[in-house]
Amino acid sequence: MAGFLLNKSNDKYKIVINRELVHILIDELTPFAKFFGVTFMETTNYVRASVESAPFSKSIFLQNNSFGLSVKIEDDKKDIANTISLKEWSAANMILGNFYLSKNEAGQYRPLEINYDIQRVSFDKGCFRGQEIIARMKYLGIDRRRFCTIISKREIKEEKNLKIIGELIKLKDSYICLSLIKKDFLETLREEDPSLIII
Predict the structure, then answer these.
(1) Region 158-166 average pLDDT
(2) What is the pTM for the complete model shown?
(3) 120 Cα distance to chain centroid
(4) Domain membership of residue 118 as a residue range
(5) DSSP 38
(6) Of 182, 180, 177, 195, which Cα lies nearest the Cα of 95?
(7) 79-111, pLDDT tens digit by residue?
């Protein structure tokens, strides 16, 4: 339904989320919140995102061998002067295999189609909505498609074996997108364009 970051500070949790998805998330969580005495309140904090290289700070939430993404929540807009741009944020998340849903995409994908089964689902922490289908696909299903990031010097085109997930962005001289690709089509793609990077 939504992708978000959770930040804990002084016994309070702050959720960093696309503004379009705030009410979708609150509506989903409200029936459960009353059992734990939890309330939701929208705030007007600012988010400062940055790309880091090792050694990483404590604010890193996602990383690979080359770089990490960090997020800090600030009260004053002047404190976000050193943040990366929204396009750079999107590209860095894509390279790290992380997909943030837009309002139009909420509820459109199963977790395994967008890497959420790896990045956001715990298979040993009790029950959650949709658990049976998600667990069945993980342990019994055969997935013939692979979620991956494509980086290309040419514009990436969608076709029957390649579905673009989310937006296609151009950053400097490269096109970057997240995609679902049929596994047996991966080699064909690499042969057609040896410069293509598939992560």
Answers:
(1) 90
(2) 0.81
(3) 9
(4) 111-199
(5) -
(6) 177
(7) 677 788 888 989 999 999 999 888 888 888 888
